[in-house]
């Protein structure tokens, strides 16, 4: 299943097609064992509720840096980092339900406090 990531205020599409990872296995695998991402490639790790520990990620077996964005249930961006390969843990200091992982060029397009929506696109 795929979604579009939309800026709530401007209604602009930030990322056209994002893999929706709501299963344990999809969240666990993420971008492990990947040497690079294709332009526009992204995934969102979906959790049932806003949490700090539950939405933390690792970069073990990930061979490329990623832009990682934590988003709470209300759609507010709570944290943004450039996650580096082989680091054991990254987390948002504020509870989040969604973790959006994508390429480095997205880092300058998002800020803490931005409001995002996910629109299912039927793929």
Describe the 3D structure:
There is one protein chain. With 123 residues, the chain is mainly beta. Helices cover 5% and strands 41% of the residues. The protein is built from one helix and seven strands. Strands 5-4-6-3-2-1-7 form a seven-stranded mixed beta sheet. Helix 1 (24-29) links the parallel strand 2 (13-21) and strand 3. The protein is globular and about 35 Å long.
Summarize this entry quickly.
The chain is mainly beta and 123 residues long.
SSE class? mainly beta
Distance between the termini: 6 Å
The secondary-structure element order is EEHEEEEE
Q: What is the number of strand segments?
A: 7
How many alpha or pi helices?
A: 1
Relative strand content: 35-45%
Strand order of the largest sheet: 5-4-6-3-2-1-7
Q: Biggest sheet: strands, sense, closure?
A: 7 strands, mixed
- The unreliable regions are none
Mean pLDDT: 95
Whole-number radius of gyration?
13 Å
**Helicity, as a percent range:** under 10%
Q: Judging from the principal axes of the Cα atoms, what is the shape?
A: globular
């Amino acid at each position: 299943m795929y979604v579009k990531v939309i800026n709530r205020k401007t209604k602009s599409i930030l990322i056209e097609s994002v893999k929706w990872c709501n299963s344990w296995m999809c969240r666990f695998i993420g971008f492990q064992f990947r040497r690079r991402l294709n332009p526009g490639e992204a995934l969102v790790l979906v959790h049932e509720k806003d949490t700090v520990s539950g939405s933390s990620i690792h970069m073990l077996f990930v061979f490329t840096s990623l832009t990682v964005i934590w988003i709470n249930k209300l759609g507010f961006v709570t944290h943004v980092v450039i996650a580096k390969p082989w680091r054991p843990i990254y987390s948002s200091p504020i509870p989040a339900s969604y973790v959006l992982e994508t390429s480095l060029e997205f880092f300058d397009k998002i800020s803490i406090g931005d409001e995002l929506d996910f629109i299912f696109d039927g793929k």
